[in-house]
Amino acid sequence: MTAPDPTTLLLFAAAASVLVVLPGPNHVYIVTRSIDRGRGAGIASSFGVETGTLVHIGFAAAGLSTIIASSAVAFDAVRYLGAAYLVYLGITALLSRKRLDLDAPGDDRGLGRIYLDGVLVNVLNPKVALFFLSFVPQFVDPARGSVASQIVVLGLVLVLIGLPSNLVYAFAAGALGGWLRRRPRFLRRQNKVVGGIYLTLGAAAALTGDRR
Fold first, then answer.
1. Is the whole model's pTM more than 0.85, yes or no?
2. Do residues 159 and 54 make contact, with C-beta atoms less than 8 angstroms apart?
3. I need a surface site. Which of 30, 131, 207, 210 has the fewest CB within 10 A?
4. What is the CB-side half-sphere exposure of residue 34 using CA atoms within 13 A?
5. Domain assignments of the chain as residue spans, ordered by start
6. 36: exposed, middle or buried (C-beta count within 10 Å: 0-12, 13-18, 19+)?
7. pLDDT tens digits, one per residue of 76-93
């Protein structure tokens, strides 16, 4: 497999590290899940988000990111699908009458669904595709060989950087969830807080400015 030269990989890792640690929609999702269901849910969300990143790596390597960026229809379709999914999560949380138990361990099925939600939240985020289109190619050298292989290598480096960052957010939020558990007044409002965060994310995705 063709890979960028070591210097380029180091530069990419340094630049990606700065971008990855900045709080974004994926981090908000992970934090929300961690507070909602505990540390295990945050970990499942973290792996789900990075699995979604692997999907974007495949899209970018196959040239699908270019299609999304060059087609207003494709871009808007992905953007609004992602926004609609976040709004759905928000409405579901708002309508739920069950008080969330932050200490209750999730069963395998619950964590599996949370993992899948993390995959979908990331896959349906067109900004990730645009990131690969606008940022990753800057570190690709066609003269070295396969462009697709280089994109895959850079994408895997990004995953290796992103996963620890996500887990830090998950563990911190999981600890915060335990602190919140001892405050019944907040617990009575959990669903509204969780639903409000999802709705805000969905609205922000839907109302994002011009893609250019």
1. no
2. yes
3. 210
4. 26
5. 24-206
6. buried
7. 776 777 778 778 878 887
Contacts (Cβ under 8 Å, ≥6 apart) of 161: 13, 16, 17, 20
> What ranges in 96-189 are assigned the alpha helix state H?
108-123, 126-134, 147-181, 184-187
| DSSP 8-class letter at 96 | -
Interhelix angle 108-123/25-37, nearest 10 degrees:
170
Q: Which residue in this structure is represented by tokens 């229809």?
A: 73
48 in Cβ contact with 170 (< 8 Å): no
* Cα distance between residue 54 and residue 122, in whole Å: 10
Contacts of 6 (CB under 8 A, 6+ apart): none
- Please determine, for residue 101, whether its predicted confidence score (pLDDT) is greater than 60: no
Q: What radius of gyration do the chain's Cα atoms show?
A: 18
Retrieve residue 203's tokens. Answer: 């609205």
User: Which distant-in-sequence residues (6+ apart) come within 8 Å of 42 by Cβ?
Assistant: 30, 31, 33, 34, 167, 169, 170, 171, 173, 174
Long-range contacts of 105-113 (CB under 8 A, 24+ apart): 105/38, 105/40, 106/37, 106/38, 106/40, 106/41, 106/44, 110/37, 110/41, 111/40, 111/41, 111/44, 112/44
